[in-house]
Design goal:
alpha/beta
């Protein structure tokens, strides 16, 4: 079961999604972070793989660049499933009651519900995280902290490449940084 689903648009958020995938995979293990272009095997049914990963995730990170809300391709009064996979993934996450966290990239302001499709307008009300190119390590460390607080079970998953749990490693890192900050 994938724990963290990274939702992004190839046009603007792909670089940030790939970087977040790598940083979060370091913390939680590669098998616990789902990013379609890395996680779906060649020859697999794309739609089935995506929908299964959304259903199985604990949290979805929605990567939002400056042009994100203007890229929805939604025909008026169309009740059929959309071909906009970014939208569909978010709708599915809401349908399954998953935690959805908007991640605003450098320079992006808060979302406005009136700029979003009705089915995902609730995103504008959700507390967001920032991921700024000037603060990559700080922002990703804070994101890890927030993910652990929101979904403690993510931190307890052991990764064969890591010593102990993510939570234990995070606590050790925090202890080291507090120890360094207190010494002069």
């Amino acid at each position: 079961m994938d724990q963290i689903f990274v939702n992004y648009r190839r046009e603007g958020g792909a670089y940030a999604a790939a970087l977040l995938d790598e940083l979060l995979s370091e913390q939680f293990g590669e098998d616990r972070v789902f990013r379609a272009s890395r996680s779906i095997l060649a020859g697999s049914d794309f739609a089935r793989s995506i929908l299964s990963a959304v259903e199985g995730c604990s949290v979805m990170l929605v990567i939002i660049d400056a042009e994100w809300s203007g890229k929805f391709d939604i025909p008026e009064n169309d009740a059929s499933p959309t071909c906009d996979w970014v939208l569909r993934e978010i709708e599915e996450a809401f349908k399954f009651g998953r935690l959805v966290i908007p991640v605003l990239l450098s320079g992006v302001g808060r979302l406005c519900a009136r700029d979003l499709p009705e089915s995902v307008a609730f995103l504008a009300d959700l507390q967001y995280l920032r991921f700024d190119y000037r603060n990559i390590r700080k922002d990703s460390d804070y994101m890890v902290e927030q993910l652990i607080r929101a979904c403690p079970d993510i931190a307890m998953i052991k990764d064969s490449d890591c010593q102990g749990s993510v939570l234990l490693r995070w606590i050790r890192r925090l202890s080291r940084s507090l120890g360094q900050g207190g010494e002069k």
